[in-house]
Design brief:
23% helix; 7-stranded antiparallel sheet; 581 residues
């Protein structure tokens, strides 16, 4: 592939002047597309925009590639967001990372140490801000809750179920409350209109709460229980091929692994791009980083991997304030029942990437909730008092966006209802607009450090030794100067695609004495990083590795001309050197 010039064109616009406000607002598909195109158009020497695929509603799943010579394969750091439709903050954070990557190559990133900046200039950034553009568009336009994608391709559609939609014609699909003496909810005595969990001391009136919408296959009597996957049964984060299980074992799984165009597009790209060594999967909400293993305790994890994840944890704590927890030990919704088919597990176990899920937006801290024994219990332990505190916070710090007054309406199936309740888009599922910029900045700063862990191949100056008038020995030392080894995380050594580094040699005007040396397997090369808390700093037995970060290419050449040496691997990309003989 032809090289792209690394010389930037003159009179580049400042990155800040191209912003469409994603650090302070949630962009719809049109504006998100315009943002990405403006960057690709303004910085053609460092940015490429391509589509991973198209959704059933005709929207592109955009990928922005940022880096010098963006077509040249080398280690790449991936970030994606918004695979769950309502979790639009992931798009803003991904765009902020892309913007900072562009700054890195133009004006520079203030506050970023020179050593990190120098390393990052040879790393590719793969940014997918919105995996589910169809779902996000529905959420942003109508408020109707959708887990991932707004479609139902099931053939068995005869069961009664709720179909969320705008029934009162105000353009929004929120909630409906119905007075019922057996209702599970009651109005808070402290916050008018706020529905809270009913207690035995409450006098009523009591309410049932349903999504604003209609009931499909309604028999006129029995109201089905709402279910978050009832009308749109796919959860993209249960549809990836590693450890996938069918729907009767894993809700939201889809009919088969990667059955959905969105997840399939990601899998196809990742399979064709083994250079991805780091992978950040952005979600909301919680204010936590979830790392592997998802299916077993830390004692079952590769301990060298675990040490590297501790380094990631240190940066996340420093720049975001988020704790890092084990997916198995602190984030299972049901004990001993790991989630199946999720993207981060796929990225770590099948693609060998340093992969985490980040649940953006630490709402629990805003409400002053005490830290539970396991992080996932934050979601379980949400009380009446927490709801009332949320109402106060929403009024004082979020412009009252969350709590919508109830309006009476005559429903075509249920009769008298009230429509309104909670609009969770800004303030619950996603940060308030006043806090979004801070979330973006912290996550981008942490991501830059993670991306700087990339392995990097260096070729030393060759040594050419004349053995006779027509015979020479050529030697080149190949070194890895990066934090990670050329395999990525240590556990990735065993993956089939993760081939060792090799060299290919070809004489131009000269020839190899032994043609069998035209292809030389050099093996994987260690990096210098060891993660944190691995015991290597203990002064009682100071030591480092030997020269396991280096290998030699050595060959006998007959005649005079040029020797072309290409060194690399599928994961590392390739570097080429021409040696005069």
């Amino acid at each position: 592939m032809a090289k792209v010039s690394t010389i930037p064109p003159a009179n580049l616009p400042a990155v800040e002047t191209l912003s469409l406000g994603f650090r302070n607002a949630y962009l719809d598909y049109e504006r998100l597309t315009a943002q990405l195109r403006s960057w690709a158009d303004a910085y053609p020497h460092i940015a490429r925009l391509q589509s991973l695929g198209q959704t059933p509603e005709g929207r592109e799943i955009w990928l922005l590639i940022v880096g010098i010579e963006p077509e040249r394969r080398r280690p790449a750091a991936w970030v994606d967001g918004n695979m769950h439709a309502i979790e639009v903050a992931g798009s803003s954070v991904a765009l902020a990372i892309a913007e900072d990557a562009l700054r890195l190559h133009t004006t520079g990133l203030p506050g970023l140490p020179d050593a990190i900046a120098a390393r990052l200039r040879d790393v590719l950034f793969y940014v997918v801000p919105r995996i589910s553009p169809d779902g996000a568009e529905t959420i942003l336009r109508t408020g109707q809750f959708i887990r991932s994608v707004p479609r139902d391709a099931r053939v068995d559609k005869g069961a009664p179920k709720w179909i969320p939609q705008d029934v009162d014609g105000n353009g929004m699909a929120l909630a409906m409350r119905v007075v019922d003496p057996a209702g599970e909810l009651v109005e808070s005595p402290n916050v008018p209109g706020l529905l809270v969990e009913r207690g035995i001391e409450d006098l009523g009136p009591f309410y049932k709460l349903y999504p604003e919408g209609v009931i499909a296959n309604f028999d006129g009597r029995n109201v089905p229980s709402p279910y978050f996957l009832g009308h749109a049964p796919i959860d993209l984060n249960r549809n990836f091929p590693w450890s996938w299980a069918p729907g009767h074992e894993q809700a939201g799984a889809g009919p088969y692994a990667a059955s959905e165009p969105e997840s399939r597009a990601v899998v196809e790209f990742a399979t064709a791009h083994p250079e991805i060594f780091a992978w950040i999967n952005l979600h909301t909400f919680g204010g936590v980083v979830i790392r592997p293993l998802g299916h077993g305790p830390d004692s079952k994890m590769n301990q060298e991997d675990l040490a590297i994840f501790r380094q990631l944890e240190a940066w996340m704590t420093e720049f975001t304030g988020y704790p890092t927890v084990s997916g198995h030990d602190e984030f299972l919704y049901e004990p001993d029942k790991p989630l199946r088919g999720d993207l981060s597990d796929y990225a770590y176990n099948q693609r060998g990437a340093l992969s985490v899920v980040i649940e953006l937006w630490d709402l629990f801290k805003r409400l002053g909730m005490p830290k539970p024994a396991k992080f996932v219990q934050y979601y379980e332990h949400f009380t009446r008092a927490n709801l009332e505190a949320l109402a106060v916070w929403d009024r004082e710090h979020n412009g009252g966006r969350v709590f919508v007054p109830w309006q009476k309406f005559v429903h075509p199936q249920l009769g008298p209802v009230e429509i309104g309740g909670i609009d969770p888009r800004i303030g619950i599922w996603n940060p308030s607009l006043s806090e979004l910029a801070g979330v973006c900045a912290g996550q981008a700063a942490a991501f830059m450090r993670i991306a700087a862990l990339a392995p990097v191949l260096k070729l030393s100056e060759p040594t050419v030794t004349a053995l006779s008038a027509d015979l020479s020995r050529v030697e080149v030392r190949i070194e890895n100067h990066g934090y990670l080894g050329t395999f990525g995380v240590p556990s990735a050594r065993g993956l089939d695609f993760n081939e060792p580094v090799y060299a290919k040699l070809r004489g131009i005007g000269c020839e190899l004495v032994d043609v069998g040396q035209a292809h030389q397997i050099l093996g994987h090369l260690d990096g210098w990083g060891r993660g944190l808390h691995s015991g290597q700093n203990l002064p009682s037995y100071p030591q480092t590795r030997g020269t396991s970060n280096a290998a030699y290419v050595s060959v006998l050449v007959r005649g005079h001309g040029a020797l072309r040496v290409v060194v690399g691997s599928a994961r590392m990309g390739f570097r080429e050197h021409s040696i005069d003989v």
